[in-house]
Amino acid sequence: MNEIANKARAAGVVGAGGAGFPTHVKLMSPAEIYLVNGAECEPLLKVDQQLAAKYAHQLVRGLQLAMQAVGAREGVIAFKAKYVEAIAAVQPLLASNMRIHILKDVYPAGDEVITIWMATGRRVPPAALPKDVGVAVNNVLTLINLARAVDEDAPVVDRTLTISGAVSDPITVTVPIGTPLREVIARAGSVTVDKPYFVNGGPMMGKLISSIDQPVTKTTGGIIVLPEDHVVIRRHRQPMQDVLAIARAVCEQCNLCTELCPRHLIGHELHPALIVRSANYRDIGKPSVLLSALTCSECAICEQWACPVNISPMRINVALKAKFRAEGARYVGDLRPLDPMAEHRLVPTSRLVTRLAISAYNKKAPLDETASRSSRVVLNLRQHVGAAAVPVVQVGDTVQRGQLVAEIPADALGARVHASISGRVEEVAAQFISITH
Ligand code: SF4
Ligand code: SF4
Asked: What is the 8-class DSSP label of residue 292?
């Protein structure tokens, strides 16, 4: 393992953009281009654009280290033009082999595969990885964490996230990992609706939160508060049998979900209209049509934007994915020609905001890094892709902020976990370690 990857491993750096892939593993695969995904295309989330402006030096340093680790000849930072402060802060720091790429303000510009295509012209084949086309990708916070890991031996103990939606004072805060969501939401003033629901992530790709007593993890990018009757919440709460019943009753086979599916547009077989038809009539046609559900990014364009009769091809894909994964099935398929209209069929963010009925919530959420004073944190042992970390502390131990509390199991893919506050280990369970101050 190279020294930079080794430092990332030691610090527990994982992809902060969502999946939490261990960064040290990514830093061990050669790539020609290192891409910083600074698109932050989910409406209402304001994390990366503000961190890039405030910590521009660390972002560019992280990119330089990542490029060195994988032997990249070019570094590309993808921003939207409206991130004026981030661009102004980063541009003067760029080395001659780095550039900023300005993305159109469309959704899903931040989907890794789409960002790669927009910023480099390379298309990742279905079921392939960015490294298969010579590209490595991380988001802004991940590379800032990498710079801190290498230059300061600083482990990942904090997370920056936006609290937005139906709250009096939308805000972007940095808190110790493991802080209960309830405490973080309180930093955004008061909730302004009677029956609030909470979404972890953005309104398009986020997941409904079952309890706000859950802790912040390394991949928690935002909490969106919405009223019970909001269209986004109604979608999330719709039972699967209703999704299937509606699909059977009203699908017009208009094909719009396929014509606007970003993955289909860039040449993937994924064809949500045919998948809906297959689910409706058991008219499977080629088995690969159904298996291509495994390549769905869950961007929600088909359900929140394309379908005129409120069907959710995405939900059907999610159900198929679970079934296929349980069976160990894999999708195999070639990259097809790019749709000549692809660039023009991605969705303008401004129109998406209107369609999602979130215009009233689309406000600034200024970054406030005032230290949070949580007296108890719960550190999930699996905040990343791979195996759960193995505790190396016991109940009653005194730990310092930044101290290692859980190690990667031998010969496994995973990430370390560190104490995010100083205190006493209260509980060590199969899924988590809690620390009280
Ligand atoms: S969620 Fe729908 S639009 Fe998005 S990739 Fe999947 S099938 Fe395509
Ligand atoms: S957009 Fe809706 S109605 Fe049209 S084919 Fe897709 S699921 Fe059916």
From this structure: G
Instruction: Provide the whole-model pTM.
Output: 0.95
Most ligand 1 atoms within 8 A of CB, residue of 205, 265, 270, 346 to mutate: 270
3-152 CATH choice from 3.30.160.270, 3.30.300.160, 3.40.50.11540, 2.20.28.20: 3.40.50.11540
Question: What spacing in Å lies between the alpha carbon of 274 and ligand 2's midpoint?
Answer: 9
Nearest CA to ligand 1 atom 4: 299
Show the tokens assigned to 290.
């159904």
Q: Whose CA is nearest to atom 3 of ligand 2?
A: 251
**Residues 32, 134: contact at Cβ < 8 Å?**
yes
In 23-109, beta strands by DSSP E: 33-37, 74-80, 98-103, 106-107
Considering the domain 375-437, what is its CATH architecture? Answer: Beta Barrel (2.40)
Report yes or no: 395 and 384 within 8 Å, Cβ to Cβ. no
Candidates 363, 315, 354, 362; CA nearest to 231 is 354
Ligand 1 contacts CB of residue 294 (under 6 A): no
272 Cβ below 6 A of ligand 1: yes
- Spell out the per-residue pLDDT of the chain, length 437, in tens: 799 999 999 999 999 987 899 999 999 999 999 999 999 989 899 999 999 999 999 999 999 999 999 999 999 999 999 999 999 999 999 999 999 999 999 999 889 999 999 999 999 999 999 999 999 999 999 999 999 999 999 999 999 999 999 999 999 999 999 999 999 999 999 999 999 999 999 999 999 999 999 999 999 999 999 999 999 999 999 999 999 899 888 999 999 999 999 999 999 999 999 999 887 776 555 678 889 999 999 999 999 999 999 999 999 999 999 999 999 999 999 999 999 999 999 999 999 999 999 999 999 999 999 987 789 999 999 999 999 999 999 999 999 999 999 999 999 999 999 999 999 999 999 999 999 99
d(CA 233, CA 213): 19
Distance 301 CA to ligand 1 centre (A): 6
CATH 3.10.20.600 residue ranges for the chain: 157-228+360-373
